[in-house]
Specification:
4 copies of one chain form a homotetramer.
Chain A (H helix, E strand, L loop, with lengths): L3 E9 L4 H11 L4 E9 L4 E9 L7 H14 L3 E6 L4 E7 L4 H11 L5 E2 L3 E3 L5 H6 L4 E3 L7 H14 L4 E4 L8 H6 L4 E5 L11 H8 L3 E8 L9 E8 L6 H24 L3 E4 L2 E4 L2
Parallel strand pairs in A: 5-6, 5-7, 5-9, 7-8, 9-10
Antiparallel strand pairs in A: 1-3, 1-4, 2-3, 10-11, 11-12, 13-14
Helix pairs in contact in A: 3-8, 7-8
Chain lengths: 284, 284, 284, 284
C-alpha cells in the first residue's frame, strides 16, 4: 500500500468546497488517489474523504495541517488529516465466545486489518490462550454486579495507558456505562446479534425465534449511551426457516456477526465512516 | 403439472404418524410425489404435507377424505386434503400503487400462480385499466373516514359472493378492521414494506431512513387483528447506503415487495404454509 | 428531479483533472450535486461523472459544451455533457416472454425509468396487447432463417427512423448480427439468463441444472459481436436446490432477470455506466 | 444433541419405499426425528435420509443393520446406517493461507463441526503454530515437481494410518493426482475460489477481474479426477464493483470461501449430502 494522507471533512454545503480542496492539493502537486463526496440535502451538509499519495506532496502531515487550516476555517469544516502509515491502536474486548475474536485476529495477522492491538481485555479467562498465541497481551478484568463501576474505571485506565484510538466489543457481554460511552464517541464499535432496530437488548436470537422471522442478522454500530441505538456502520442477514431452532439461529448468526464486525472495523480503520446525527456515511 | 392430492395435517407428535399416513397411501397404491414433515420440539407438535399423484389412487378426493378420516381421528389431526387441479379463488385488493399488482397479474397470466381471480377490489380508480386489460372485473369500493364500516361490510359481501379462498392485500393502504381479520384467519395475505418487526406501522421507509439502516426489506404475512404482527410467511432485504434518500428506499423497496409477496402467495396457493401460534412452517 | 447537466469523461490519469473540472464549474457558480471519480491503475486511466444543478449555471448545454471544450482538449478527454431533462429514446425488443417487458413498462409508467419508448419491436405477435395497453406502438418484424438479413435491415431502419439512443433486448430470442452490434456499440443492452461467464449460449437453465449449481443468475450486458461476451453492467443470483427442476430454475431465474435488467437499464439511462475495454465502471 | 441413527439410502423409485422404511422404524417403536426424501424424475431415482432417536430403538447400530437388510435388498437400495455419536475422522490439508483453516478450527473447538481431526497435513510449515495451538498434530509433507508421486503416496499412507473418513482441502494449493481422487470418491472436499463453472483452474480472481464480473464466489465440491468438475455441495457469492482490484477480490472472496467450505463440511459430516451422477442432493 502506498502511504497516503486521508483528508476527512464535513461542513455546511455551498458552492466551491470540492474545488477549493482539490485546487489546494493540485497546487501542491498532490496526486488524488480517491475522492468521495456526499451532500445531505435535508441538513444541507457536505461530507468528503479524499486520499492523496503522500509522496507526491512537498510536505508531511504537519505541513498539510498548517497549509490547509485557512481553507478549513473559511468553509467552517470539521476536519482531520490522517497518515495511513500510522496504524490505529485498537483494544479488543471479549467475553467467552471466540468466533469474532478468532476471526478478527486471523484477519489482523493477514494484514487485512491495519492496526496495532496493544491488548485484549476480557471479563473471563476463556480466551487467554488464543490471544496469547497471537502474541498479544491478555488482560483479565472481571466484572461483577458489585465491582462494575470500579472495573470500568480500570478499563478506562487501560485504554488511556495503551493510548487506544478504538475499542472493539467483539461479543463483550457487558453493558458499557454511560460515562464510558460518552468519553469515547464514535470510538467504541459493537456487534449486536440482531438486525437492528429489530430485537434490541438481551437474547435477540430467542426474540427472533419467537417472532418467527425468516431472516436473522447482525449489526455493527458505534456505541452510545442509548443501548443498541448508536449509528449503524454495517448490517447483514442470513436466511433461516422453521427447521432452525434457537441454537441453529445462534450458529447461523455467528457467521453474520463475524463478517459484519470485520467489515465495520475495517471501514473504521480506513477512516471511511463519518457520523452525522445518528446515521453514518460510509465511503466505499 | 400432474393432478395431485395434497394431504396437510398437524397433530401432537408421537411415534407412528409418518408411518400410518404413508402406509395408508401405499395400501391404496398411491404414489407419493413429495413428503415434508416437521416436528416442533418445544410444543411437541407434528406437521406434514404429503402430495400424492391423484391418478395413482383408486378414489377421488371424497374417497380419500372418507378413508383417511379414521386415521386422522386416531392421531387427533387438524387436517385437510386438497385437489391441486381445483384452483383457489383469490381476490386482490389494491390502492394506487401498481408495482405489486402488475407483477402478480403477469405471473398469473404466465401460470406461475395457479388460481382464479374473480375480481380486484380497490379504494381508488387508478388501476382499473391494468386490471381490465387482464380481463378481470375491477370493483371500486371507496373508503373514507365516514364510510369505513360500511365499505368493509360491502367488501366482505363481495368476498362471500365471489367465494374467495384468499384475499391478497397488494399494497392496499387501509387498515383492515378487526372483525374482518378474525373472520378470515390465515386467509388474508399482506405485504408490509419493512423487515418486520422493524418499522411497524406507517411510513416504514421514512422510519428506515431516520434510523440509518444499511438494508431495507419487506415482509409477507397473514393479517391478524394485531397490525403487522401476524405470522410471517416470507421476508427479504436489499442493501442501501447513505446515498439513498427516502424516495430511493421506496424505489428499491418495491423490488423486494414484489418478489416477497409473489413468493408468499405462491407458497400459500400450493398449501405449503402452515401456521403454528404466531409462526409459520413453510414446506419448500 | 432537478434538471441537471451530467459531465461524463475519461482520459489518461494525471495530476489536476478533478481540480480543473471542479474549478471550471465553480468559476461559473455551478452547484455540484454529485461527483464520482475512478482511477484504473493498470491502464493509468481516469473516469469521472459529475452532475451539476443546471439552474445554477449561467449557460445552457451548448454553452457548457463550448466553454468546457478547451479543458477537454488539454486533458485529451473522451467526454460528453448530457441534459437530464431530455429523456433518452429507447426501443424495446421482445419475443414471447412477458416478464421483463411487463416489469419494464410498469417501471416506465411509474417514472422509475426516465425515457421515451417510441416503439416495441417483436418477432412475434404475443405481446402486442400488453404494449398497446401502455399506449406504445407495437411493431411486428418476423424473423426466419430465410429473411434474417432483411429483417435486421428493417429493424435498423426502424431504429434510425425513431432516433433511438438505446436498444434493450428484453428477452429477445434472436442473435443480433455482427454488423448491427458494431453499429451500436454500448447502445444495445441484453439480459442473459445465466451468471456469465457460466453457461454462455443456448438454454442456460438446462446447462445449470446439468452442472448442479446451487445458485443461478442473470447478467445484464452491452451487446458486442462476441455472443454473451460484452461488458457486464450488472448481475445477480438466487439460491436453488436439488428440489428445483429446470422449469423451477426458469421460474426463479425470471425474478433475477427482471430486476437485473431494470437496474442495468436505469444505470445506463442515468449515464452511470462507462465502458473501459471489456469492463464497465458503474457510478452509483 | 440426542444420539441418533441416520438411515441414508437411494434406490429406483417405486410405490412403497417411504412406507416400508417408516413402517420398519415404527414397528420397532423408533422415534423419527427428521425424514427427508427426494425423487429425481428424470432418472426415476429415490433418495432418503431419516434420522431416528437411537434411544427409542431396541437395538444398536448392528442390530439395525441386520434387521433392515432384507428391506434394503427388496428395494435394491444403496444404503448405510450411521451412528451420530461416532464422530467422523477428518484430515485437513492446507498450504500457506490461514483463513479457511483458522475458521474451521474455531468452529471445531466450538463443537460446530462434530468430528475428530487426527492431523493436519501441509506442504508448507507456515501454519504449524496455529494447528498445534489447537492441540492437533501438524504433518509437513513437502511437495515438489520431483517428489510429487512419492509425496502423495506418503499422504495416502497417512490417510490410511489415521483412518480418515474425509479429507478437506482447506485451500491446499496442489492438484490431487487422479489415482488419489479415485481412491476416495465423495470423501475429498475442496473449496474452489470461484463460482463454478466460471473460472475453472488457476488464479480465478484474476480471471474474474479480467472478465469484469459484478459478483465473485466460491464453490465447495467433492474432488474427482476432472479438475474443478466434481459434484457441487454449496456455493455463494459476494458483490464487487469496478473499484475492487484483484487484491480486493482476493480479500472479499476469502469471506465466501470460509463460510461455503464450513457449510459444505458440516453438511457432509451430518450425512446430509448424497451424490447422484455429478450432482448433489443436500438434505437441509
Amino acid at each position: 500500500m502506498k502511504p497516503t494522507f486521508r483528508l476527512i471533512l464535513d461542513c455546511p454545503d455551498r458552492v466551491g468546497i470540492v474545488t477549493c480542496a482539490a485546487e489546494f492539493i493540485t497546487r501542491h502537486n498532490g496526486w488524488i488517489l480517491k475522492a468521495s463526496h456526499h451532500s445531505e440535502e435535508e441538513s444541507n451538509w457536505f461530507f468528503s474523504r479524499v486520499s492523496v499519495d503522500a509522496r507526491s506532496l512537498p510536505f508531511g502531515i504537519e505541513g498539510f495541517r498548517n497549509e490547509f487550516a485557512p481553507i478549513a476555517r473559511e468553509f467552517k469544516m470539521n476536519w482531520r488529516i490522517v497518515d495511513s502509515s500510522v496504524p490505529k491502536r485498537v483494544i479488543l474486548m471479549v467475553s467467552r465466545e471466540s468466533h469474532c475474536l478468532s476471526d478478527l485476529l486471523d484477519r489482523w495477522r493477514n494484514s487485512e486489518l491495519e492496526c496495532q492491538i496493544p491488548c485484549v481485555i476480557s471479563n473471563h479467562e476463556h480466551l487467554r490462550g488464543l490471544v496469547e498465541f497471537y502474541g498479544i497481551p491478555f488482560l483479565h478484568v472481571p466484572v461483577t454486579k458489585e465491582n462494575k463501576a470500579e472495573a470500568f474505571e480500570k478499563m478506562v485506565a487501560l485504554i488511556e495507558e495503551h493510548r487506544a484510538d478504538t475499542i472493539v466489543l467483539a461479543r463483550y457481554m457487558q453493558i458499557i456505562p454511560e460515562w464510558v460511552c460518552e468519553r469515547y464517541p464514535t470510538r467504541i464499535i459493537n456487534i449486536h446479534h440482531s438486525f437492528l432496530p429489530s430485537f434490541v437488548g438481551a437474547r435477540p436470537y430467542h426474540q427472533a425465534s419467537t417472532r418467527g422471522v425468516k431472516l436473522i442478522g447482525a449489526t455493527c454500530h458505534y456505541v452510545t449511551a442509548d443501548l443498541d441505538e448508536g449509528p449503524i456502520i454495517d448490517q447483514d442477514v442470513v436466511r433461516v426457516s422453521h427447521t432452525d431452532r434457537v441454537d441453529d439461529l445462534v450458529r447461523l448468526g455467528k457467521d453474520v456477526e463475524k463478517v459484519v464486525l470485520a467489515r465495520g472495523v475495517r471501514d473504521h480503520l480506513e477512516d471511511r465512516v463519518m457520523v452525522h446525527g445518528n446515521k453514518t456515511i460510509v465511503f466505499k
